[in-house]
Amino acid sequence: MKKNLLLLLSLMTLTASAQKDGLPDGFLAVELQANPFSNDFNTFKMTELKARLWLNNKHVVRFALGLGMDTKKEDTSWNFDSREGSLTGYDIIQQNGTTETNFKEVRLTVGYEYHLAQSGRLDLYVGASAGYEGKYYSGSSESTESWTRFSKGSYVPYPDLGTSTGSNTSTGSWLHYPDDSRVPKQVTITNTSSSTDYSKMAPNGDNNEHTIFANVFTGVDCYIYKGLYIGTELGISFKHGKSENGSYTRISNRTVTDDGTITVNKREEFNSATGITDTRDLLDFTNNKKSYRPAVNKSSSSNHLKIYVEPAIRLGWIF
Questions:
Q1: Distances in whole angstroms, Cα of residue 272 to Cα of each of 149, 192, 276, 297
Q2: How far apart are CA 54 and CA 253, in angstroms?
């Protein structure tokens, strides 16, 4: 902030000596924010469209509208194979997943400025504003897993060379096996899949937020060239925010196949808003059941009162 103020004072000094006195004529201005000392390469940013409407040289109406939208998709994959070095059985596991997060943001601000003093290229004012900010989340996730287990049948270890071949036990290292000892005797395949839809929340747990705010402020503009001006503001801000209770619905399926025969085929649906889990056995409907666990309400509210300073210099043009 000190750097911004120093830059503003320097430009004010230069323009005061280079420009004649008097503010430009005009009734509408648009703005963006500029931070020449930014370390994150965001020297200029325009998160919302800001405009000021001059009713006369003392009274100004200001308004701002911000809209944002973002979609993030993440794919994951994991594989496991224990065949190497296995003598009694091994597993092959394959997992895949996709998560998508959708985010929307809207911000609306209206305000009023009273311009106290206009001297040369400087314009000092006070004012107040109020507005609404909403953050909206949704998303989905899908995952699949295939777990194949190869089980070996029993085998008879052959003793080391040099011991009696008539015995089927040995105190030495068992290095020799029947030729079929590595042939799987049973194959078990477990497939699971899960699909989740999120409402009023993101997969990472962020919930919809609604905020109303009110500010009182004072600021100064410096006109550096015709209708081009820079400015900064400081003030007091009050915010009241509320976080919604998001929910999700997850549907899971699980099948188990032993040597080609399906032994398990179940479908499970869970709704976080109600806390109800509906389990259905597609092989034996007598095993169908519903269970309940208390639903968790994650809604919350908060209030904030603070002094604020614009983190960047306002850069505007008056028409």
A1: 33, 20, 7, 10
A2: 63
Q: How far is CA 224 from CA 20, 21, 26, 245, in A?
A: 10, 11, 15, 49
| Backbone φ and ψ of 7, nearest 5° | -65, -40
Pair of tokens at residue 88: 């009694």
DSSP-derived secondary structure letter, 158 = B
DSSP code for 121: T
Exposed, middle or buried by CB within 10 Å (0-12, 13-18, 19+), for 291? exposed
> In 88-103, which positions are buried (b, 16+ CB within 10 angstroms) versus exposed (e)?
ebbeeeeeeeebbbbb
Residue 214 contacts residue 129 (beta carbons within 8 Å): yes
Q: List Cβ neighbours of 30 (8 Å cut-off, separation of 6 or more).
A: 49, 50, 51, 316, 317
- Say if residues 254 and 266 touch (Cβ distance below 8 Å): yes
Helices (H), the chain: 2-18
Choice among 40-49, 111-120, 153-162, 278-287 with the minimum mean pLDDT? 153-162
Instruction: Check: CB of residue 99 under 8 Å from CB of residue 87.
Output: no
Structure tokens at 175: 């290095």
**Cβ pair 165, 128 in contact under 8 A:** no
Neighbouring C-beta atoms of residue 307, cutoff 10 Å: 8
Contact of 101 with 69, CB cutoff 8 Å = no
Query: Which pTM was predicted?
Result: 0.75
> Any idea what DSSP says for residue 155?
-
pLDDT in tens, 138-182: 999 999 999 998 876 544 444 444 443 443 443 433 333 444 445
Tally of helices (H runs) and strands (E runs) in the chain: 1, 14
